[in-house]
Design goal:
149 residues, Cytidine Deaminase, domain 2, 5-stranded mixed β-sheet, 28% helix, globular
């Protein structure tokens, strides 16, 4: 898979995602997720998953990062790194953590699907990079909202 974002930047985003993961609140699933969202201005917003016993009031790391950025007035995003591990699985082990459908939809709301990068990382040497359009497998992501409502 072609890596299109500079490796130094990818490494930094993955490191920031692991820092965010440390703050995750996951007492039910024991699966902690961290995300680091990059804005076009170069700012990084961290997010972690936050669970709730009622399940649906919980929030994913990706949406936490995006909502933090939007609440601070930033809506132009270029990429996000996502990491996740079950309890007892160390950095560099485990599997890549994919964004859920709700998170993908939120990304589609705010991001250019042909440019926005999704980085799924296990560590800084083991990651995959996608564009949102490739991740969704859309034929033409620009037409997703072309409706006359």
């Amino acid at each position: 898979m072609e890596k299109t974002m500079k490796k130094e930047l990818v490494n930094h985003l993955i490191d920031e995602a692991f820092k965010a993961q440390e703050r995750a609140y996951a007492p039910y699933s024991k699966f902690k997720v961290g995300a680091a969202l990059l804005t076009r201005e170069g700012n990084i917003y961290r997010g972690c998953n936050i669970e709730n016993a009622a399940y649906s009031p919980g929030n994913c790391a990706e949406r936490t990062a995006i909502f933090k950025a939007v609440s601070q007035g930033e809506t132009d995003f270029t990429g996000i790194a996502i990491v996740g591990n079950a309890k007892g699985v160390n950095r560099g082990a485990g599997e890549m953590c994919s964004p859920c459908g709700v998170c993908r939809q939120v990304m589609a709301e705010f991001c250019d699907p042909e440019e926005f990068k999704i980085i799924l990382g296990i560590d800084t040497d083991n990651y995959e990079e996608y564009t949102l359009v490739n991740y969704f497998h859309w034929d033409s992501a620009k037409n997703i909202y072309n409706t006359n409502l």
